[in-house]
Amino acid sequence: MKNTHFKLPSFTQAISQLIAQPSISSSQASWDQSNESVINLLAAWFETLGFDITIQAVPNAKGKFNLLAKLGSGNGGLLLAGHSDTVPFDENRWLSDPLKVTDSDNKLFGLGSCDMKGFFAFILQVCQQVDLKLLKKPLYVLATADEETTMAGARFFANSGIIKPDVAIIGEPTNLVPVIMHKGHMSHKISIKGQAGHSSKPTSGVNAIEIMYQVISELFKLRENLNLSYKNEAFDVQTPTLNLGAIHGGDNANRICGHCELDIDMRSLPGMKDEELVSWLSKSLQPIAEKYPGRLSINELDPSSPSFEQTATSNLVVTAEKLSGHTCCAVNYATEAPFIQQLGCQTIVMGPGSIDQAHQPNEYLAHSEIKKTELLLTKVIHHYCF
Asked: Which of 22, 67, 249, 331 reaches 20 to 30 Å from 52, CA-CA?
């Protein structure tokens, strides 16, 4: 039974209520939170508008849920998708409460204001303004879990295959510019098991830091080879990247280091396969592994996210460029787009706000984004569903 007596909020009220529901995703258990309260709030709102609601628990992700809201019948249609989680925050670096919307300087400050709870508030507002009884094709709204860490929600939904829309728009903050390409992302931990001992007798142990020094030298060679071999001029950073992100080893100056770990990430260009990068990484370190048997290991930190590309001449891209007034582009960061694309639909990333605000203290959505986002979403829904 539809909840027809539930009063729907305005845009500002909706974004305020969404931000007030904490839904942090983190690889650190002390930070990680369920997104259930956000999902339940969205479910109540869209059910009131007449949408059919499906809530799915994401396997192997405790307290994490996806929501699919569907209105209309038939094949194809439009999917508006986004993630319901946020990154952690350092409250000491915020000038206001991250979980309360602060309206100041023509901006709405709050955690997730642009990345990306605000997108759902826009969808809700637009759905209250259009005549949903006139839909000729279905309109879907998808809210996923854990995009900021494992992308488990999008992976699970892509494999479920319960819908096949004509097109999908993921509302990540792009300043309403259609994004049709982005890099992939993978992260690995390289571990060296040494043999601790007294520093006065270097030959009595095996120094893990010294082995890691050799590892880093080989990683620099791999990075140089990737830069020379692969290039895509659509990107600001035109080559694949390999970043040395964190290193830990040893415990005292007068001890031979017995263990050392290095965390790296690699970002691939469209057309490069994840398994290729993993193979190149393994091959580059193979001589060191053979030189020090049983001491070097490589383990995946988080499941990899593949690169993404939507054909620039596809109907969705041409339409999005026309409706938004912006030319399509490529970005260096990763999104859920490659997983949503697996549903068999044309897919782009296009949403309000700037990526420069994402993952930053004092994240905000500018007032100037509101009217033009509502107008663009209205045009998109009319084009693909009416």
From this structure: 22
